[in-house]
Design goal:
Elements lengths: L1 H30 L25 H21 L9 H8 L13 H8 L19 H5 L6 H17 L7
């Protein structure tokens, strides 16, 4: 009798294992085969002019928004201008040479933000196109605030004159 119970228990285990294997086999067949790698949101996207970014890629992917917010606070609230995390520098480097933009189907910013289902609101105020601030364009930034326009113009002229790439103009 004990031998009979052992055979039944063994039969039950074998049946359970076969049933589980059949479930996994069916799930595998329905899934379309082996797992495929998830395509990168940056496939076919222009990555940038430089050899490396201002910070490691993993850090930029995770923390770029904090860097931009910190830069905004320094610039707007405290009047301190640093160049490392300027949005204009990001756009200048990452804008697609064909479209001259970081937005659009293959835009550097748009492709990742679309993939992550995150709305970009930076470019409701800022330009997604590379641009160089000139003294003339600085005046048009705030024509109704003459003191601010003078400060922006002075900053633009100082930046242009001290630019090591172009030299004094």
């Amino acid at each position: 009798m004990a031998m009979n119970q052992k055979k039944r228990a063994l039969g039950a285990w074998i049946t359970a294992i076969v049933a589980i294997a059949a479930c996994f086999g069916a799930a595998y067949a329905l899934s379309g085969g082996p797992a495929r790698p998830v395509p990168s949101p940056l496939t076919g996207v222009y990555l940038g002019k430089g050899k490396k970014c201002v910070a490691p890629v993993s850090v930029m992917r995770r923390d770029h928004m904090q860097f931009l917010l910190h830069q905004r606070t320094l610039t707007v609230h405290e009047g301190i201008r640093t160049k490392r995390f300027l949005l204009t520098n990001c756009v200048d480097c990452h804008a697609d040479p064909k479209t001259h933009s970081v937005l659009g189907k293959h835009g550097f910013c748009a492709s990742c933000h679309e993939y992550a289902a995150v709305q970009i609101d930076c470019f409701s105020c800022h330009s997604p196109h590379p641009q160089r601030l000139t003294a003339e364009s600085a005046i048009t930034l705030a024509p109704q605030h003459s003191r601010l326009a003078e400060m922006v113009k002075a900053t633009a002229i100082t930046q242009i004159q001290s630019d090591p790439v172009d030299g004094p103009q």
